[in-house]
UniProtKB/TrEMBL annotation:
GO biological process, one term: defense response
Keywords annotated in UniProt: Cell membrane, Disulfide bond, Glycoprotein, Glycosidase, GPI-anchor, Hydrolase, Lipoprotein, Membrane, Plant defense, Signal
Family membership noted in the UniProt record: Belongs to the glycosyl hydrolase 17 family.
Protein name: glucan endo-1,3-beta-D-glucosidase
Organism encoding this protein: Penstemon smallii
EC numbers for this chain: 3.2.1.39
Species classification: Eukaryota, Viridiplantae, Streptophyta, Embryophyta, Tracheophyta
Residue span, X8 domain: 359-444
Pfam family name, one: Glyco_hydro_17
Domain of life of the organism encoding this protein: Eukaryota
Signal peptide coordinates: 1-17
C-alpha cells in the first residue's frame, strides 16, 4: 500500500449567528502517542481550526489555547456530574478552577455538562438540570453568563420515531428531565446539543438507507425521502435527524431553541464487518458535511439556518476499545499527518487553502468492463474530454486497458467540471482518490507533474516519532445506536426502491 501524504485546511466562521454556522473539532486524547498541548494548538492554528470541544477542562490544554482566539467548549466529565449536581458550592468551585482561572485569555464560549447522560448514565439524570443550573449560577455571579453558554450533549437515540421527522418525539420517560432542561436552555439563550452519526444509522438499516443518502451524495428527486406529513424532501440522514430534533422539541412546545451538533463524522477504517468504513467514505462524508454547514444550506424545516457542528474528531485514537472503526474517526494521525485530503471546493471563502487539486477521479478496478467502456465512450464523446493522449503512440496509450484509459478520461472530465459534486461517478464505475494516477510521461489533469501531495507547501514523511503524554478521553463517544431512525425509514423504504 502506498503512503498517503495528505492535507487538511479548515477555516471556520465566528460564532456569531449573523455570520453563519461554524465547523469545529472534538479533541479526544486516547492516543498512545498523544501530542502535547502546545503541539495540538500548533496543529489547530496551522489548519486554521477556530472552534474546539474538549472532553474535560484540562489545565495544560486551556493554557496552551490562551491568546489564540480559538473558541473552546469545555466539559464537565460524567464522573464529576453527581458532585456538581448535588452542590452549588462544588459547581462554583469547578467553574472557578476550570473557567475563571483561564478567561479571558482562553476564549471559553460554552460548557458541556456531562455527555449523553440520559442514555448512558441514567442514575445521574435526575440531577442533570441541577448541575447545569449550578454551573450557570456560578457564571452569572462572575458576569460571564452571556459569554459562556451551558448545555449538555445528547445521543440521538433519545429521539423516538425520528423518521419521518415531523413525528419525532423524545422518549417520554425522560419528560421530567427534558422539560425543565429545555426551559433552562430557553431562559438562558443556550442551544440544544446532540450527537449525529449517520454512519451508525446506515450500518443498522440492513440496506434500507442508501449509502449515498448517508454520505450527502446527490440523489435524484425520486430517491429522496419525503416526510408525508410536511411533504419536505430529505436528501441526507444528517438533516433528517436534526429536523427530528427540532420537531421533538416543538412536540414539547419549545420552538425557539437552536441546535448544535456536538459530534458527527465517519470512520476511515473498519474490520471485516465494517466495509463502508473507508478513507473515501470518511472523506466524502466530512467534506460534504463541511460544505453543507458552511454554505448555510440549513435543513428542510429550517432552510438557510445551518447547524454549527463539531467533527468527531481531530486525531485517530489507537487506545480506544471496540471494533477497528472506533480507533479511526480522526482527521489526523498523532504525528499531525492528515488521514485524507478533504475535498472542499464550493464551501465558500472560509478556506485557508483549496487542496482539491490533489484529488483525482479513477476507474474502479472491480467495475464491469462493458460499463467502463460505455462510460469511456461517453467521456470522449458527449462529455467533450480531449482524449487524444490515449491514442496509440501518445503518452497515455500504455497500458492499453479499458481501466487505464477510462481513468484518464474520467479524471480529465472531473477536472474540466471543476471537481463538482457528482462529476466522478459515471454510473458507479468511478471513484475519487488522493493518489496521483500519473505515470511516466502520462501526466493527469490536476497533477502538475506531481506524484505526491503536501501539507502547507511542506513535504511530509510519516514519522514514528511523536511525543508522549496520554490522557484517556472521559466519554463513550457514540452512545446507543440510533435504531429509531432506521425503523422509521423501513416503514418508508419504498422511497428508495
Amino acid at each position: 500500500m502506498g503512503l498517503f501524504f495528505l492535507a487538511l485546511f479548515l477555516l471556520v466562521s465566528t460564532a456569531s449567528a449573523d455570520e453563519g454556522a461554524f465547523i469545529g473539532v472534538n479533541i479526544g486524547t486516547s492516543l498512545s502517542d498523544m501530542p502535547n498541548p502546545t503541539q495540538v494548538v500548533a496543529l489547530l492554528k496551522a489548519q486554521q481550526i477556530h472552534h474546539v470541544r474538549l472532553y474535560d477542562a484540562d489545565r495544560a490544554m486551556l493554557l496552551a489555547l490562551a491568546n489564540t482566539g480559538i473558541r473552546v467548549t469545555v466539559s464537565v466529565p460524567n464522573d464529576q456530574l453527581l458532585g456538581i449536581g448535588q452542590s452549588n458550592a462544588t459547581a462554583a468551585n469547578w467553574v472557578s478552577r476550570n473557567v475563571l482561572a483561564h478567561v479571558p485569555a482562553t476564549n471559553i464560549t460554552s460548557i458541556a455538562v456531562g455527555s449523553e447522560v440520559l442514555s448512558t448514565l441514567s442514575n445521574a439524570a435526575p440531577i442533570l438540570v441541577s448541575a447545569m443550573r449550578f454551573i450557570h449560577s456560578a457564571l452569572l455571579a462572575a458576569n460571564l453568563d452571556s459569554q459562556i453558554k451551558v448545555s449538555t450533549p445528547h445521543a440521538s437515540s433519545i429521539i423516538l420515531d425520528s423518521f419521518p421527522p415531523s413525528q419525532a418525539f423524545f422518549n417520554r420517560s425522560w419528560d421530567p428531565v427534558m422539560v425543565p432542561l429545555l426551559k433552562f436552555l430557553q431562559s438562558t439563550n443556550s442551544f440544544f446539543m446532540i450527537n449525529v452519526y449517520p454512519y451508525y444509522d446506515y450500518m443498522q438499516s440492513n440496506g434500507v438507507i442508501p449509502l449515498d443518502y448517508a454520505l450527502f451524495r446527490p440523489l435524484p428527486p425520486n430517491k429522496e425521502a419525503v416526510d408525508p406529513n410536511t411533504l419536505l424532501h430529505y436528501t441526507n440522514v444528517f438533516d433528517a435527524i436534526v429536523d427530528a430534533t427540532y420537531f421533538a422539541m416543538s412536540y414539547l412546545n419549545f420552538t425557539n431553541i437552536p441546535v448544535t451538533v456536538t459530534e458527527s463524522g465517519w470512520p476511515s477504517k473498519g474490520d471485516s464487518s465494517e466495509q463502508d468504513a473507508t478513507l473515501d467514505n470518511a472523506n466524502t462524508y466530512n467534506s460534504n458535511l463541511i460544505r453543507h454547514i458552511l454554505n448555510n444550506t440549513g435543513t428542510p424545516k429550517h432552510p438557510g439556518i445551518s447547524v454549527s457542528t463539531y467533527i468527531y474528531e481531530l486525531y485517530n485514537e489507537d487506545l480506544r476499545s471496540g471494533p477497528v472503526s472506533e480507533k479511526n474517526w480522526g482527521l489526523f494521525d498523532a504525528n499531525g499527518v492528515p488521514v485524507y485530503i478533504l475535498r472542499l471546493t464550493g464551501s465558500g471563502t472560509v478556506l485557508a487553502n483549496d487542496t482539491t487539486n490533489q484529488t483525482y477521479c479513477v476507474a474502479r478496478e472491480s467495475a464491469d468492463r462493458k460499463m467502463l467502456q460505455a462510460a469511456l465512450d461517453w467521456a470522449c464523446g458527449p462529455g467533450k474530454v480531449e482524449c487524444s493522449p490515449l491514442l496509440q503512440g501518445q503518452p497515455c496509450y500504455e497500458p492499453d486497458t479499458v481501466v487505464a484509459h477510462a481513468t484518464y478520461a474520467f479524471d480529465a472530465y472531473y477536472h474540466r467540471m471543476a471537481m463538482a459534486d457528482g462529476t466522478c461517478d459515471f454510473n458507479g464505475v468511478a471513484t475519487i482518490t488522493t493518489t496521483d494516477p500519473s505515470h511516466g510521461s502520462c501526466i493527469f489533469p490536476g497533477s502538475g507533474g506531481r506524484n505526491g501531495t503536501f501539507v502547507n507547501g511542506t513535504s511530509l514523511v510519516p514519522s514514528s516519532n511523536s511525543t508522549v503524554s496520554t490522557s484517556n478521553s472521559q466519554f463513550s463517544r457514540h452512545g446507543d445506536i440510533h435504531l429509531n431512525f432506521v425503523l422509521g425509514l423501513i416503514l418508508l423504504s419504498a422511497v428508495f426502491l
